[in-house]
Specification:
The complex is a heterodimer of chains A (about 270) and B (about 300). Chain A is an alpha/beta fold and about 270 residues long. In chain A, about 40% of the residues lie in helices and about 25% in strands. Chain A is built from 10 helices and 10 strands. Chain B is about 25% helix and about 15% strand. A 7-stranded mixed beta sheet of chain B has the order 1-9-8-5-4-2-3. In chain B, a hairpin with a 6-residue loop joins strand 11 and strand 12. In chain B, helix 1 packs across helix 2 (about 55-65). The chains are: A alpha/beta (about 270), B alpha/beta (about 300). The structure holds zinc ion. Zinc ion binds next to strand 12 and helix 7 of chain B. The site of zinc ion (ZN) has 8 residues of chain B, from strand 12 and helix 7.
Chain lengths: ~270, ~300
């Protein structure tokens, strides 16, 4: 694992892909997150860090339309160039977006994979969901994608229950990327994995992000993961963003005492 | 719809067992099902005097449809004479006093478990299916809130995942019963556990087809002349079972055959699953390899079916 930050996507004047405005969510009287603004450009990786209960998971759910906001809104620039308020999408439009232009890699593979369905079927599901009706072509694409995530072609008919933790995460990635999404959400994608397995997975994510120009919003409590993958970082505490900026700047020179605490407790060499 | 008192048995039932209010409720569900082909309509199913596995969903639909002048046929796996078929026929003879028949052409209401008659259905006939599991997505997506959304959005990629898995495991689509089909271009339905051999008979049938699931309290329907298209892949198209030999009793080809064991030396024969159809052909003089009086006790060996 190298320690250098992600190379930034080349600067251009492209419009933002994803914009959140004053995003707020209450669970009854309890605050999930409050007045979060963010802007994500194509090819940019944003890490959201904080402790458990900081609101980072709530924010990810709001951005990915899994949760409705109490107030505020999320805008997304679709493939056709039109920017939409995601709350105005019909359910059919929302589902199409989720399975074509977006991906979601979960910490627990059983929430992101169909455990009783073969690896090929897992990768092929999106293709079939958007109308793929040629078995041979679906299977070939599945095998191609297994190769890209370093899973041998002869595992295509095995189901993920027989896969190791690292393989399951790589399969999740293949399953998501098969439709060439432009934006991928990741929720602690390396959580619970052995350090060496984590390193290999992070290298793979880095190379796929660069190769496909993916924009990523990654939630992690692991600042080393944030440093390795992200261009920018947002630090959350008690439902609010308390510090944000370029990843190296924030991690090397944190302004907020809370961020200093986070950095010192986790990033000891 | 009053029932002639002369045929009334000792115990007094309302016509066709169910009270009139319940029948009206079931008829409303049937009308809704006809109006939205393939859509599963919930209904307030009643307890029937028989266990669920006996087709209580079909029985309630039949009870709601029957009039005093209707002629009823009941088949179970193609046969009019199994215990189940006889019991249901007797039930309606007793509670509704309707005329019953084994001849497909004479019946205007046919209640069935697991088959569609070989004799083509006609306009004016109603085929009532007994359905154990109405939800084609059930084993793929257990959450009912989610399956409802998938139906509403006509979002059936998951069923293709199931067919994909079939091909990956078996080299071909191994689903041979309850083969899912798209009704009228929108809803995918489970056609009940009929062999896929019968799927083509559902497409643009002149008869009304009504499906009743008792345990799950759902009714769905295919109105006459409605498209019913099986799901498949371009390179693995839907095919029906083919049999390598004709019926041993009536020589019929292109019909669904059952294997019958003749003796404990492995002797067997293949005969029409539709007993009324087979008897009709024999009455017309058609013969098969085992129809002669001195028929051998061993049938020709051969694979039952090929799915190529
Ligand atoms: Zn026959």
């Amino acid at each position: 694992m190298t320690s250098s930050a992600m190379p930034r996507p080349k600067a251009d004047d492209e419009a933002p892909l994803l914009v959140a405005e004053k995003l707020t969510r209450f669970y009854g009287a309890r605050l999930g997150c409050r007045e979060v603004d963010l802007t994500l450009h194509p090819g940019e990786v944003l890490a959201i860090v904080g402790e458990s209960g900081s609101g980072k998971s709530t924010l990810l759910s709001l951005l990915s339309t899994e949760l409705a906001a109490s107030s505020g809104r999320v805008l997304y620039r679709q493939r056709d160039g039109v920017t939409r308020d995601l709350a105005t999408l019909s359910e059919a439009e929302r589902r199409l977006l989720l399975r074509t232009d977006w991906g979601f890699v979960r910490q627990h593979a059983e929430q992101g994979l169909r455990m009783a369905v073969s690896a090929g079927g897992n990768v092929g599901e999106r293709l079939m969901a958007v109308g793929g009706r040629h078995y041979g072509a679906i299977r070939q694409q599945a095998i191609d994608w297994l190769g890209r995530v370093e899973i041998e072609a002869d595992r295509v008919d095995d189901d993920p229950r027989s896969f190791s933790g690292g393989m399951r995460q790589r399969l999740q990635i293949a399953r998501n990327l098969v439709t060439r999404p432009r934006l991928v959400f990741m929720d602690e994608p390396t959580g619970g994995l052995d350090v060496s397995v984590q390193a290999r997975l992070l290298d793979l994510i880095r190379s796929l992000v660069a190769q496909f120009g993916l924009a990523v919003v990654i939630v992690t409590h692991d600042l080393a993961v944030a440093r390795l993958l992200s261009h920018r970082i947002m630090v959350m505490k008690s439902g609010r963003v308390i510090e944000e900026g370029l990843t190296d700047q924030v991690l090397d020179d944190p302004r907020e005492p809370y961020t200093q605490l986070l950095v010192s407790s986790v990033l000891v060499p | 719809m009053t029932h002639p008192a002369t045929a009334m048995p000792a115990i007094s039932y309302n016509f066709a067992y169910l009270d009139e209010q319940t029948k009206r409720m079931i008829r409303r569900a049937i009308l809704k099902a006809i109006a939205i082909p393939g859509y599963q309509v919930p209904f307030a199913g009643r307890e029937m005097p028989m266990p669920y596995g006996w087709g209580t969903g079909g029985v309630q639909v039949t009870a709601a449809l029957l009039g005093a002048d209707d002629v009823l046929k009941v088949i179970d796996q193609g046969s009019d004479d199994t215990t189940n078929a006889v019991a249901l026929r007797t039930f309606f003879e007793t509670t509704a006093g309707v005329k019953t028949t084994s001849h497909t052409a004479e019946a205007n209401v046919i209640q069935t478990r697991h088959r569609i008659p070989e004799t083509p259905l006609k306009p004016g006939q109603v085929l009532v299916y007994q359905v154990p599991i109405p939800e084609p997505l059930r084993f793929l997506e257990p959450r009912e809130t989610e399956t409802r959304k998938l139906h509403a959005l006509s979002d059936y990629g998951l069923i293709h995942v199931k067919l994909y898995e079939d091909i990956a495991r078996h080299g071909h689509i191994a689903t041979t019963y309850a083969y899912p089909a798209t009704v009228n271009g929108h809803y995918v339905m489970d056609p009940s556990p009929i062999p896929k051999f019968d799927n083509p008979k559902m497409d643009h049938s002149p008869a009304l087809q009504v499906f009743g699931a008792g345990r799950e309290k759902r009714i769905y329907a295919v109105p006459p002349y409605t498209s019913v298209v099986p799901l498949d892949f371009a390179d693995h198209p839907f095919t029906v079972q083919r049999f390598s030999q004709p019926c041993a009793l009536c020589g019929a080809e292109g019909v669904y055959l059952d294997e019958v064991i003749l003796d404990d030396q492995g002797g067997r024969m293949f005969v029409c699953s539709d007993t009324d159809y087979c008897a009709g052909r024999q009455a017309e003089g058609h013969t098969g390899t085992l129809s002669a009086p001195d028929a051998p006790t061993r049938a020709d060996e051969g694979p039952k079916e090929g799915c190529s």
